[in-house]
Amino acid sequence: MVREFRGAVFRAPGRPLQIESLVLDPPGPGEVAVRMAASGVCHSDLHVVDGEWARPPDVVLGHEGAAVVEALGDGVAERFPGLRPGALVVLAWTAPCGTCPACGRGEAWQCERPVGAGHRLSPDLVRVHRVDGEPVGTYSGIGTFGSAQVVAAEAAIPIDPRTPVEVAALIGCAVTTGVGAVLETAQVGTGQSVVIIGLGGVGLSALLGALLAGATPIVALDTRPEKLILARSLGATGAVRAMPGDAAGTLALVQAALSAAGSEGGADHVFECIGLPTTVEMAIDLTRPGGTTTLVGMTPQGARAGLDVYRFVEQGRRLLGSNYGSSVPAEAFPRLARLHLEGRLPVERLISERIGLDDLNEAFAAMRRGDGARRVIVFP
């Protein structure tokens, strides 16, 4: 039985998302029909809207969401016993196939053949249509800016039902990406010094990860005073306001904050959580000899940054890229939800505003201004 729902459709770069009434088919074999509960508004979506990432048109955007299972396709109950109607799930924007070489290495975040890939635009995967029958895709196979969806069973990860849906949504991307970058990719140790560049949802999640790891000192960097105040209240030992257009001056301020905390010569770990060539270069310069720079923020496609190769090699530094926090969603999502319920991961502090689907384009405008950490759509 088909159902109608509302979704925010990407039509072309530079155009506002269009809120449309759409039609959803029932789930096929290996699929799950869900009612969306909440969706975070992530900068990766803005990259698509602003044309910085090339993506196909006529796709329901959104990739950071929590949902409630409504129906199971054939074979799901037998293979995924945790999936049943009424279960709260976090949706993963990469649904690992479990059979490719990357999955065989335990690197599900690098899966080469994710289930439901290609934004569900191939004829055999399309489950969303306009009322006239025209097919519509779903971004990253989950399209969380829709009030309902059909997703691959592998993409629907059950978590503790006591988890607030707004928190569950952020676990789907920002929290897993930021916390995972610290604990899984870089493997920060107790007492190591950390600098976090950029305090959006991912950067603040990295801060929470550094606190979990027992890092100290932790210096946070951003242009917005309110974000620095939030970082301090969460546990950052230092907060530096960046000076736009003055990379050298900003670098000196962070180095002074590190020195005042007893970390001469740079930090053990620096996390770049914005995705700008200038801050990537700054992150490398802020890393001590022998230390590790981890790139978490995503730049526009094709952007390049430079480094002094001789100095980098001579000082024995390490440069890491972190995709999805080097995390396996089926393992990471339930663990992060549990940490939240135990009071050790205050994800709710990252939420700037709870909004409706019709407020989405204004949320993107606020993101362009750098206003707030994370806005979350809460579906009725």
List keywords for this structure.
380 residues; alpha/beta; Quinone Oxidoreductase, Chain A, domain 1; Rossmann fold; globular
CATH top level of the largest domain is Alpha Beta
CATH homologous superfamily of the largest domain?
Answer: Medium-chain alcohol dehydrogenases, catalytic domain
| CATH architecture tag of the largest domain | Alpha-Beta Complex
The portion of residues forming beta strands comes to 25-35%
Helix/strand/pairing category: alpha/beta
> What's the assembly state of these chains?
single chain
Characterize the biggest β-sheet. 7 strands, mixed
Number of strands: 18
Measure the end-to-end span: 22 Å
- Shape assignment: globular
Itemize the secondary structure elements and their pairings.
Layout (H helix, E strand, L loop, with lengths): L2 E8 L7 E7 L6 E10 L2 H7 L9 E2 L4 E8 L3 H4 L8 E4 L9 H4 L23 E3 L4 E4 L9 E5 L3 E3 L6 H21 L8 E4 L3 H13 L4 E5 L2 H10 L3 E4 L5 H14 L6 E6 L4 H9 L1 E9 L13 H6 L3 E4 L7 H13 L9 E5 L4 H10 L4 E5 L2
Parallel strand pairs: 4-8, 11-12, 11-14, 12-13, 14-15, 15-16, 17-18
Antiparallel strand pairs: 1-2, 1-4, 2-7, 3-5, 3-9, 3-18, 5-6, 6-10, 7-8
